[in-house]
Amino acid sequence: MKKTTKFLYIFTLTLFSGAILAQEVTVQDRYTYKSGDPNGIGKWYLGREIAHVMGFQGMRWLERPEREKEENTSVLLKNLDIQFEDTIADIGAGSGYHVFKMAPKAKNGLIYAVDIQDEMLAELRSKKEKGSSKNIEIIKGSEKSVNLPENSVDKILIVDVYHELSYPVEVIASLKKAMRKDAKLFLIEYRGEDDTVPIKLLHKMTQAQAVKEMKAAGLRLKQNIDNLPWQHCMVFVKE
Predict the structure, then answer these.
(1) CA-CA distance, 177 to 175, in Å (whole number)?
(2) What is the CATH number of domain 53-238?
(3) What is the mean predicted confidence (pLDDT) over 136-151?
(4) Taking the complete model, does pTM exceed 0.85, yes or no?
(5) Where are the domains of the chain?
(6) CA 141, 54, 222: angle at the middle one, nearest 5?
(7) Which residues neighbour 1 within 8 Å (Cβ) at sequence distance 6 or greater?
(8) Whose CA is closest to 169, among 19, 42, 50, 40?
(9) Where does the Methyltransferase domain start and stop, copy by copy (predicted)?
(10) pLDDT value at residue 20
(11) DSSP for 59-99, written as a single string
């Protein structure tokens, strides 16, 4: 009887270990590696090469005076239809260009400012200390997770960042866990279909590619708000 119990234990453990290994292999198989564009990292997901991350050295570009004219950022924030009690996560918040504009609009809510670069996080903290908006929580994410609480956000804003994520599958999975039932994910990317948009090819995305990748994560396109000069404003919800 003891031998039978031991055999069943070993058999179950083997099956469990095999299932974990198969899951890991499946996740790894989602990415392929080959040479490509000089602006890419040589890692591909669903036919798209992932772009190099813009480092903290580009902070001044994020805060450039002409950004409002080029991107119509005030219209973008109107698209979010921010309510007083909204909890919103800005993923890849950088120096906080959008964070400190959203905080007063969600004055009874909360803004999560998520970034992985220490220099960006330091800038966010400095601005928060100097400003009047206290409803901002600064979060250090990782390459694979946004490190947000489960079921915590009403809206997610990702501006010109998604195409640089080294692990898009894992990051979107972590975002999906953080989304409440009726939450919306606003994916902002320079239009890859438009050759006149003066941005490097790998730092743009087509709607078709974005829909393909979000669908793989269990998100569907609810709307593409076509009112920005250079960018898609794609709204995704849980399927």
Answers:
(1) 5
(2) 3.40.50.150
(3) 98
(4) yes
(5) 53-238
(6) 65
(7) none
(8) 50
(9) 87-211
(10) 41
(11) HHHHT-TTHHHHH-HHHHHHHHT--TT-EEEEET-TTTTTH
